[in-house]
Task: structure prediction
Amino acid sequence: MKITREADYAVRIVYVLMCSPGVVPASEISEKTGVTLRFALKILRKLSAQGIVTAQKGAAGGYRLLRSPDELSLAQIIECIDGPFEISHCLNGEFDCTRVANKETCRFRQIFDEVSTKLRTELDQIKMTSFKN
Amino acid sequence: MKITREADYAVRIVYVLMCSPGVVPASEISEKTGVTLRFALKILRKLSAQGIVTAQKGAAGGYRLLRSPDELSLAQIIECIDGPFEISHCLNGEFDCTRVANKETCRFRQIFDEVSTKLRTELDQIKMTSFKN
DNA sequence: CCTTTTCTCTACAATTTTAGTATACATTAC
DNA sequence: GTAATGTATACTAAAATTGTAGAGAAAAGG
Result:
């Protein structure tokens, strides 16, 4: 029941962007978070693809937070990196459960789905501003 | 943000025990859940070690639920298999964070810890009886 | 337009975790 | 004492995670 390291790093990266005004190059983000440059770049690309940050190429380029920290939640960041909240593999659309006739009526699935939604709701209430002191 | 397959199986195994009176051999549990016999035995050993089920050896032996289904929660089963609820690796006692002077005052740690506790509380409110119909 | 500094894309490699199996053994009932 | 169970430990295979590498594309500034 863990988020990946990548998602954990993403939160810390967003925190750095939140605290630094203007455009921050990946090299600086890497230094401040302790995440290797290459790995930070990979994470930043995912954040950028989801519109959480925006990238500026070229000299004096870097990244900037696109969303307001009081609207950007842990859920959004974690979901961006780790994918949707599904606490059991059986919730995945691809998963073809052979044990049950109708997926929709499976009690396990129902309950796991409810829990996943609840978890997402909890994490969506924690905004990045919570990390400021 | 997933439980392991092993934990998912454990829930289904407990469900079978809850629905079957008396002592149920692992072979029958394996058949009813679709979990291979060997793997089911491994899971049952963990459940047995935590006092969730009890094992009876020998011919006509098998497993029996030790706790009442209306007191046995998802949290207890998942924790028994996957270990404590810690949504970030940085919560682990072994983990030596080099980025921070004092672990206790780290805001990331504090928030991840709160979320983990909240998640456990939610899952502890879901008892095995919820799966009946 | 050339050079430097940045980010992008895709692919690859190493490590760790998960998932599952095998072998040998211990206990109990009949 | 034999057949049917569970126990313990160790091993293997597969998958996911955690990174790294290389070639390229865009922007800024001279």
In short: Chain B touches chain A at residues 1-3, 5, 8, 11-12, 15, 33-34, 74, 78, 82, 85-90, 98-99, 107-108, 111, 115, 118-119, 122-123, 126, 130-131, 133 (CB under 8 Å). The mean pLDDT of chain B is 95.
